[in-house]
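Minutes, project check-in
Item: structure for the 237-residue chain
Input as provided by the requester:
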Amino acid sequence: MKTLFILIVLFSSFLMLHSQDYIIKKHVFGSSAQTASNAEHVFKSTVGQSTTGNAENDDIKLFSGFWKLESQAISLQSINLIAGWNMISTYLTPTDTSIEMIFAQIVDDIVIVKNNIGQIYYPEFSINDIGNWSIYEGYQVYTSQSNTLEISGQVISPQDTPINLGIGWSIVPYLRSGPMNIEDAMQSLTDDEALVIAKNNLGQIYYPAFGINDIGNMLAGQGYQIYLIKTGTLTYP
């Protein structure tokens, strides 16, 4: 009877896998694990134990063959803006990616926002060529006075978020919540001999060919302008 019950539970688990749209990236499982799979899923679980995995968009938990969505923690990041030009980014995936919603609370102080390819958000004239915030970019923001931009969302995994970059100038985001020396942070680009120079909002530079590093640590909330001599991929360690 016990064996029959276990088989029923495992069969239910397998059927549930086929009905899901999730693509499992990671899983945690106990010893003596059972495996169920199809073209899109590979799932391992121990009957009677809870198993947690990370899917494409959601955290999921399996209790004896039944999927259960878990709520993901929402974090808040505060970004200080000075009067004039700023280069900014966030280590969060915003809950609402609309540029208009991201700047809604301080829109009266926002003159213009620009992205990497020169598209703009100009609230006074209701111009929004940017559309949605991209976690793969930094943004230039001109404000009429100092203020604080608050962004809510889910924390990005920087080492799992490669940023593909073209030749020439780009404004890149800094995807970590804590500081990191720019020499370590940009290693994927310097190892590939793609990076020529990086600049912060104060005009300080990192020029690896000449051993110049005026920037020191990259900081959460800041964007950085970089110049590449060939295409490259920035992956924060």
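Outcome recorded: The chain has a mean pLDDT of 81.
No further action items on this chain.
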